[in-house]
Amino acid sequence: MDVGVVYFFTDQGPDPVEFGRAAEGYGFESLFVPEHTHFPVSRKTDYPIPYGGPELPEFYLRTYDQIVTMSMIAAHTQTIMLGTGICLLAQHDPIAKAKQIATLDHLSGGRVICGVGMGWNVEEAEAHGVVWKQRYSTVRDKLKVMQALWTEEVASFDGPRASLAPSWAWPKPAQPNGPRTYLGGAGPTTMRHAAEWADAWYVVPSAEDPSLSKTVPEFRRVVEKSGRDPASVGIAVASAPPDPALLESYRELGIERAVLWVDPADDPGEGMRNLETVSEVLAQIS
Q: Where do the Luciferase-like domain residues begin and end (predicted)?
């Protein structure tokens, strides 16, 4: 099982390049970068309790651009994988996003993981023209457009939420089939969509099943029911606690990657210390 970290980079916290180089030096296999474009002041959507709600942390308001941040880190590291964790794809143009990610993967030597998801803030999504009730199918079809552009010499896709007339686009990603795609989130609807069309489910563990001992078998049943081989669809854990016992249980379940949560800080030194503290778990797992 690979072990990575996720961090909300902001204009008040540690320098992303310094953080990324430190994460690579500690031995983390991957670094995931979240995104939020903005937050409408008069929002009606509550910050989800599973994420630490109801009060919205300030770091959500101050995040750097995801792809720019990942590019800076990629230019100053050698081996660490870089994940969009997650890209709120419904809010983006898929042709432009495919170009960004293909370019980053090409220039970094194949170090990108493409995590996508629906998000939770209705007002943020609607400001981008997203129809909230159609967000799952929108993400699916936009990702299909991106994958066509990554893998086909003459790319095309025709879906109800996104389509692409036959088109040329280079560079292709360094990874032959394009970056591995994760669908992030929790709950039965996300589980079903991940089972049907993602390379892996990027699951947020619930308070009721932090070890995923019930969730993982259920997901594999859903994958099989969808007509896919359960062995062909991976599972990764998003914002995993740095708990050696839980991480060992994830390994035993066949989890492919656990991405550990590092507490964001509005002081650069504190953010780096938080990373160092989380890195101590690496010596405690086999």
A: 17-239
Q: Are 254 and 216 spatial neighbours (Cβ–Cβ below 8 Å)?
A: yes
Domains in the chain, please, with CATH? 2-280 (3.20.20.30)
Beta-bridge partners for 261: 6
Per-residue pLDDT of the chain (286 residues), as tens digits, is 999 999 999 999 999 999 999 999 999 999 999 999 999 998 788 888 777 778 899 999 999 999 999 999 999 999 999 999 999 999 999 999 999 999 999 999 999 999 999 999 999 999 999 999 999 999 999 999 999 999 999 999 999 999 999 999 999 999 999 999 999 999 999 999 999 999 999 999 988 999 999 999 999 999 999 999 999 999 999 999 999 999 999 999 999 999 999 999 999 999 999 999 999 999 998 6
